[in-house]
Design brief:
Length: about 130
């Protein structure tokens, strides 16, 4: 069992924007780690306290993850931290080498882990 981290930001606290961001992040994690739905054991989401329009888990349910456990939490508040941010921790059951796992940080969340240097096609358009 391994874990994969990810994060993405939104501009507005709107259900459609949050759902779209979650779908983008999860699809990118799946693609960049060559995962199948059956490989994912659990999603644990956290959001900053300025996002309360919808649970992030709703988006992955709509993606077909109906038998996968999902937990949604509020991120700990820290002064001067990134706003409107959705984070995820996926538990996966797949034979991967730990150094081959691609953690995905998109949009403004990319600055949370500059050391990973992952730049998606979506981000290339943002810079």
């Amino acid at each position: 069992m391994y874990t994969i981290r990810g994060a993405i930001t939104v501009e507005k606290n709107k259900e459609i924007e949050i759902n779209d961001a979650v779908k983008t992040m999860i699809k990118t994690i799946i693609r960049e780690n060559n995962l199948n739905k059956k490989d994912i054991i659990n999603f644990t989401f956290s959001t900053t306290d300025d996002l309360d329009a919808v649970y992030p888990g709703k988006a992955v349910r709509k993606m077909g993850f109906t038998q996968t456990t999902i937990m949604c939490l509020q991120e700990m508040y820290v002064d001067n931290s990134l706003n409107k941010c959705i984070r995820v921790l996926l538990y996966i059951n797949k034979d991967l080498e730990k150094d081959k796992i691609n953690h995905i940080y998109l949009r403004k969340a990319a600055k949370l882990r500059k050391d990973l240097n992952f730049l998606s096609k979506e981000q290339e358009n943002d810079y």
